[in-house]
Design a protein that fits this description.
By secondary structure, the protein is mostly helical. It has one domain. It is built from 4 helices and no strands. It has helices at 11-34, 40-53, 64-85, 96-121. Helix 1 packs antiparallel against helix 2 and helix 1 packs across helix 3. The longest helix has 26 residues, at 96-121.
Length: 122
Amino acid sequence: MQPHAARPSSHLGDCVGFWLWALVGAGLVLGLISFILFLLIPAVVFAVLLARFSPWKDGAVTLGVVAGAGVPLLVVAGLQWDSWHNRIAGDNTPNPYYWGGAGLCLLVAGIAAFAIRIRRDG
């Protein structure tokens, strides 16, 4: 094997890389929606470590950021679910369907794009 030739990737390795990048996406969105900027620091440090020192620097695995971005939105929707169903009309209780819809779209889009890219590349 030539020194510049890349090793073929395994499906399990690609899935691990995808979900590690999903952790980065979840951490970034959690820091942004909570307005607590120090929560962004671990996500940024983890992203830099993944980008510099791991075999999952590029390719389809980085679509995990999109899928991971949907997870905190689904958590927010879940936390708001009970209070929304027990609300009084006009009390400005946030609608969990908006958070859940956006979160589900991001999660499904990231996973679907990853699956399509893996099939096309591999």
